[in-house]
UniProtKB/TrEMBL annotation:
Keywords: Cell wall, Oxidoreductase, Secreted. The lineage of its organism: Bacteria, Bacillati, Actinomycetota, Actinomycetes, Mycobacteriales. Residues 2-182 form the Ketoreductase domain. This is 3-oxoacyl-[acyl-carrier-protein] reductase MabA. It comes from Mycolicibacterium confluentis. Belongs to the short-chain dehydrogenases/reductases (SDR) family. One of its GO terms (molecular function) is 3-oxoacyl-[acyl-carrier-protein] reductase (NADPH) activity. It catalyses: a (3R)-hydroxyacyl-[ACP] + NADP(+) = a 3-oxoacyl-[ACP] + NADPH + H(+). PANTHER family: 3-OXOACYL-(ACYL-CARRIER-PROTEIN) REDUCTASE (PTHR42879), 3-OXOACYL-[ACYL-CARRIER-PROTEIN] REDUCTASE FABG (PTHR42879:SF2). It is found in: Secreted, Cell wall.
């Protein structure tokens, strides 16, 4: 699980642990990983932490090797790591563009590439990518570079599905809408209320909602599903007109 120390990644890790899986969470910050492991730990659970920057291909190779050694194998890669900086188009710098593509796109590709041998060896490998509705389906001012990275992930998923099929590996993507995570805490009540007003179900999603979709793609029941996307947004992308909600 990349990006597994907080937010959606932490929620996915919790759900997989509840289902009886052994889980390794990877991230760039050792202290955050340690806090997450403490939160996730319980009798009978195996939770491993790996410090790795997914934008670094060599770090991804090491991550995959450590994961396989500590867990005794690897059946599922949840490629969840991502960054979410805001900047208007006129303010974007070369570093802004390079960094978000390195983490969100390069990190997805390098993680899948590094884990492929272990996933092939498992005989039922699964890759689940956390993308977004922003980019593939919707747009938002200030998130053009983020949106581009999330759309790029889906291009990778579709082509990787064809290459991975010969290894018995599936790869699919979950597209979250507005999810209640730590990243929303500083927005304020009015901003959150505005977000909720755009969702027909009149609530923000939870990390558990995304985890349920990831669990499906990781399951035996999804063995004939690959190169696909699943939007989990409470109906946010459905209305033709705002008043139709």
């Amino acid at each position: 699980m990349t990006g597994g120390s907080q937010g959606i990644g932490l929620g996915i890790a919790e759900t997989f642990l509840e289902a009886g899986a052994a889980v390794a969470i990877a991230g760039r910050n050792r202290a955050t990983l340690a806090a997450a492991a403490e939160t996730l730990s319980a009798p009978g659970r195996q939770v491993e932490t790996i410090v790795a920057d997914v934008a670094d291909r060599a770090a991804c190779d090491r991550m995959a090797q450590e994961c396989q050694q500590r867990l005794g194998g690897l059946d599922v890669l949840c490629a969840n790591a991502g960054i979410y900086p805001e900047a208007l188009i006129d303010d974007l710098t070369a570093d802004d563009v390079t960094s978000i593509l390195a983490v969100n796109v390069g990190g997805t590709i390098f993680s899948a590439q590094a884990c492929r041998p272990a996933l092939r060896e498992s005989g039922r490998g699964r890759v689940v990518v956390t993308s977004s509705i922003t980019g593939p389906v919707t747009g938002y001012p200030g998130l053009s570079h983020y949106a581009a990275s999330k759309a790029a992930q889906l291009g990778f998923v579709r082509s990787a599905a064809l290459e991975f099929a010969r290894d018995g590996i599936t790869i699919n993507a979950v597209l979250p809408g507005s999810i209640r995570t730590e990243g929303l805490d500083g927005l304020g009540a009015d901003a959150i209320a505005s977000m909720i007003a755009c969702i027909p179900q009149r609530r923000l999603g939870s990390p558990a909602d995304i985890a349920a979709a990831a669990m499906y793609f990781a399951s035996e029941e999804a063995g004939f599903v690959t190169g696909q996307t699943l939007i989990v947004d409470g109906g946010q992308t459905l209305p033709e007109f705002p008043e139709s909600q």
